[in-house]
Write a structure and sequence with these properties.
The protein is an alpha/beta fold. The protein has four domains: about 1-115, Rossmann fold (3-Layer(aba) Sandwich); about 130-240; about 250-400, Histidine kinase-like ATPase, C-terminal domain (Heat Shock Protein 90, 2-Layer Sandwich), CATH 3.30.565.10; about 420-535, 3-Layer(aba) Sandwich (Rossmann fold), CATH 3.40.50.2300. The protein has 16 helices and 18 strands. Strands 2-1-3-4-5 form a five-stranded parallel sheet, sandwiched between helices. A five-stranded mixed sheet has the order 7-9-10-12-11, with helices on one face. Helix 4 (about 70-80) links the parallel strand 3 and strand 4. The longest helix has about 50 residues, at about 115-170.
Length: about 525
């Protein structure tokens, strides 16, 4: 992609010697460049930079009127901060002093005349590619800043809700201070990793191992930021009493198996054994509860166990008792002192005599889990000994029933193609470009910009296999569009791909007719898995 773009790059040649210009222009033509201009009067350079907007400048140093150093000084003064416009100096002055002075003045590379044309071509290619990588990074940074700004606006509302709740709490002053300190730390810390390593990853001299390491840090920091924001949203819903509960029949074993699958990799990275223990009659035992938020609560307990266990194992399972269901998470971790056990459900707390946290995370995990389980009519208890490990128990009312229903095989009337035709419904260009980049290799794709357009396309084109539906869109939102499509193509799978990611959003979106749901930012593996499920 970048190599094809380099041939269209704008190249400006500034040299008072017409013969040198002819040589360079012939070289550029031979190598396939088509967009270049040249001048012999260096006084015209700055005006031409403004009108032509080059991606690379080939600059002589020793020229009448304005020498190359003066041209670079004027360039530095006119270009916006953080603009990467590479200058390749080509000069007959081969002294070390001149080379150092040129590089100090802003030149990105330096060649002495007479020069090898192959070397000139390679350096031109490398500088242009670096220029494009800088532009891509700047574009990605702008997208990230907009997303952070959007999330921050949502977070500001959450802060207001939390302030109201804290004023009613017995420890409101301490909670307010802890919240402000925590939110600053837990947003700035991953942002520092994102912004810092985003600038490192494009350095041309990095090894593949370093790039992979930096990419892993970027992904980890992004996940941490997303989890932090999600936690603040969840705790605000719990405190304000706005978290909704939608009970329905749930296979309790399936919920635990999903949690076990999600945390297997985290345990493997720490060399922890992760056991799943289910009763002998666990198959098709149905509990009437909200499976979505129950899975969230259990995940918080397992996440806490992984975080505080360095050696040994973690066990997830459940037991059936007369009047209750005991879901348990046992670990061989550090354990919790008796005097600290009552405090672990407080906001932003980890066991520490100074009430400060020693591990990364929002510090809200147990608070969220405790709040959810209370909404489900249950309670959390813990058993722990210092340096012996901890067992967390989720007690839920026993309304289990043995399901005699066999899973229904899904009738799929969709035509099978070598490649499915996926309709991406997205009004935001950056989001569309990302999803399309994920899918276009193995799928055919279409795009709709709003809800009305997707309805029209689904009526017109029977070959559409799957719809990836954004929810918040102009003209007609994704919920309305889904309901209309289902009225005439009920068998067409619609997967909501949305920034609505608070507790309750998944339930409401599925209740409106979407067959599945994935929250932005999109995880590639999760999206491909959903598409595969609905295509096969």
């Amino acid at each position: 992609m970048i190599d094809s773009m380099t041939k269209k790059a704008g190249i400006l040649i500034v040299d008072d010697n017409k013969a040198n210009i002819d040589v360079l222009e012939n070289l550029l033509e031979i190598q396939g460049y088509s967009n270049f201009k040249s001048i012999t009067d260096s006084r015209l350079a700055i005006d031409l930079v403004e009108s032509f907007e080059p991606d690379l400048i080939l600059l002589d140093l020793m020229m009448p009127h304005l020498n190359g150093f003066q041209v670079m000084e004027m360039l530095n003064a006119m270009l916006p901060q953080n603009t990467y416009l590479p200058v390749l100096v080509l000069t007959a002055d081969i002294t070390i002093e001149t080379k150092q002075r040129a590089l100090a003045a802003g030149a990105k590379d330096f060649l002495s005349k007479p020069f090898d044309l192959n070397e000139v071509g390679l350096r031109i290619k490398n500088l242009i590619e670096t220029r494009f990588l800088h532009q891509q990074l700047n574009s990605q940074n702008q997208i990230l800043e907009e997303k952070v700004k959007e999330r921050t606006n949502e977070l500001e509302k959450t802060v207001i809700d939390l302030e109201i709740a804290k004023n009613k709490a017995e420890a409101s002053d301490r909670l307010k201070t802890a919240f402000m300190n925590n939110i600053s730390h837990e947003i700035r810390t991953p942002l520092n990793g994102i912004v810092g390593f985003a600038s490192f990853i494009i350095q041309p001299d990095l090894s593949m191992e370093e790039k992979e390491e930096f990419l892993e840090i970027l992904n980890t920091s992004s996940d941490r930021l997303i989890n932090t924001i999600t936690d603040y949203m969840d705790i605000s819903l719990i405190i304000s009493g706005n978290m909704e509960v939608h009970p329905k029949p749930v296979d309790i074993a399936v919920v635990l198996m999903e949690v076990h699958k999600f945390f297997k990799e985290s345990c493997a990275k720490k060399n922890l054994e992760f056991k799943l223990q289910l009763p002998n009659n666990a198959d098709n035992l149905i509990l009437n509860t909200d499976g979505i938020i129950l899975r969230k609560a259990i995940s918080k307990l397992v996440d806490n166990a992984v975080k505080f266990t360095d050696v040994g194992s973690i066990t997830l399972g459940f037991e059936i008792k007369n009047e209750k269901i005991d879901i348990y998470v046992r670990d061989t971790g550090k354990g919790i002192e008796k005097e600290a056990q009552e405090r672990v459900y407080e906001f932003f707390m980890q066991e520490d005599i100074n009430n400060t946290r020693g591990h990364e995370g929002s510090g809200l995990g147990l608070s969220i889990a405790n709040g959810i389980i209370q909404l489900l009519g249950g309670k959390i208890r813990l058993e722990s000994e210092k340096n012996e490990g901890t067992s967390m128990f989720v007690e839920l009312p026993n309304n289990l029933s043995l399901s005699s229903l066999k899973p229904k095989s899904k009738t799929n009337t969709i035509k099978k193609y070598k490649k499915p035709l996926i309709l991406i419904v997205e009004d935001d260009n950056s989001n569309y470009s990302f999803i399309n980049a994920l899918l276009r290799k193995d799928n055919n794709t279409l795009r709709a910009y709003n809800g009305q357009e997707v309805v029209d396309l689904c009526k017109k084109d029977p070959d559409i296999t799957i719809v990836l539906m954004d929810i918040k869109m102009p003209v007609m939102n994704g919920i309305e569009a889904t309901q209309l499509i289902k009225s005439f193509r009920n068998d067409l799978p619609i997967i909501a791909v949305t920034a609505y990611a608070q507790s309750g959003d998944e339930y409401n979106i599925k209740a409106a007719g979407c067959d599945d749901y994935i929250a932005k930012p999109v995880n590639k593996a999760e999206l491909m898995s959903l598409i595969q499920q609905h295509f096969n």
